Write the structure tokens for this entry.
Amino acid sequence: MSSTVPLVIAVDGPAASGKGTIARALAKHFGLPHMDTGSLYRAAALTMVRFGGDPGSEFEAVRACAQMAQITADDPELRSEIVGSIASRISAYPGVRAALLERQRAFARQAGGAVLDGRDIGSVIAPFASAKLFVTASIEVRAARRMAELEERGMPAHLEEIVVDLAARDARDQERADAPLTRAGDAQLLDTSGMGVEAAVAAAIAMVQKTR
Ligand code: DC
């Protein structure tokens, strides 16, 4: 592939797989803007928590997508488990996915290239991406990482509860009818279970470079 084509990197994977860390590191390494697409679903979920709305109602979830500008990207509650869980629930609604689609596509199509991480980047948002990575790790490793992350944020948690929550979230994200979490056929698999951050980032950079 010619290196004059804008570099668009799609990073997909389940919750707490390390895809966010890897996507941010790829963006820094290749000098590209980065979008954490999960934060859009989280912002809609937090809008419902804060300003009211029933996550069981697609109508109310879609309405929250139109009101979420009130949530700022640095809001600490965006990263909470309850918000992540509501985000996973409402992300199954086709109306919610449609409401959030265009800003993700536009980000992916910007002239200089981009890195996006999420669940359906390589399959739906940017099937044209020049490099696609599917980042995963065992559920035990993901739970331990999520627990450390929550403790660091001063949000103590129980490992068993995190395992149960991640398993439920995996099932919901994989089984929904509209844009489920899936490894695009042309995505390279990166299992970070036995890897530290530096090794995982180095492996991801090597995978992207292989596609150029
Ligand atoms: O990546 P995350 O844990 O912050 O994402 C929260 C939820 O948002 C996730 O459980 C499913 C949903 N999501 C999605 O459906 N599609 C994306 N591209 C990103 C996130």
